[in-house]
Design a protein that fits this description.
Helix content: 25-40%
CATH architecture of one domain: 3-Layer(aba) Sandwich
Radius of gyration: 15 Å
Distance between the termini: 37 Å
Bound molecules: coenzyme A
Structural class: alpha+beta
Strand content: 35-45%
Oligomer: single chain
Order of helices and strands: EHHEEEHEHEE
Number of strands: 7
């Protein structure tokens, strides 16, 4: 059977629990429901925003991003383990970038764990390049891990 077409829409407060559940089931570094509530709070000055990707109303992925002065940042992107390598990550990233361009952002920034080769390849496939490394930025059980800093001119 052909998979249902993906649809992308803004995250709402009522989605926060499902977003946290998807993240907990899909990522080794999940955000909490409180973090998702924050990016779905509908106030005019909320810098953080979330977009959800669904098929047949089933949540398959999400991206959280923010505008910071002239720059935009990708804070998190997650696709359900069962829905990977179907291009949903690219669709979410492109939708976030389009939203940032609409707000006038000139550059999109992000940080990614050095060991996260899948995400690094996703970002590179969307045109992001490596700007540098932040040493020992992320906690690891045990120890610390470098962050790779990436950016895309919009
Ligand atoms: C990273 C993530 C969002 C990618 O989602 P996805 O929907 O599978 O990505 P896409 O299908 O759009 O992949 C696009 C391209 O990225 C690259 N890519 C994505 N995942 C990859 C992997 N595990 N290994 C190697 N390359 C990968 C490939 O070039 C891929 O194109 P291809 O499938 O034609 O080869 C997903 O693996 C995920 O949710 N990981 C856990 C959370 C996470 O690490 N988030 C990033 C935080 S910085």
């Amino acid at each position: 059977m052909t998979p249902a077409a993906p649809a992308i829409r803004p995250g709402l407060l009522a989605d926060a629990y499902r977003m946290a559940r998807l993240d907990a089931a899909s990522s080794p570094w999940p955000w909490s429901e409180a973090q998702y509530l924050r990016c779905c709070t509908p106030v005019a000055d909320n810098r953080e925003r979330a977009l959800l990707l669904e098929t047949d109303n089933e949540l398959q992925g999400l991206v959280v991003f923010a505008r910071e002065l002239d720059d935009g940042s990708i804070y998190n992107i997650v696709v359900a383990s069962s829905a990977r390598r179907r291009g949903y990550g690219v669709l979410l990233l492109e939708a976030a970038i389009e939203a940032l361009v609409t707000t006038g952002a000139r550059r999109c920034l992000l940080e990614v764990r050095k060991s996260n080769t899948g995400a690094r390849r996703l970002y590179a496939s969307c045109g992001f390049h490596v700007d540098g490394t932040r040493r020992n930025y992320y906690p690891l059980p045990p120890g610390r891990e470098d962050a790779i800093l990436m950016s895309l001119d919009l």
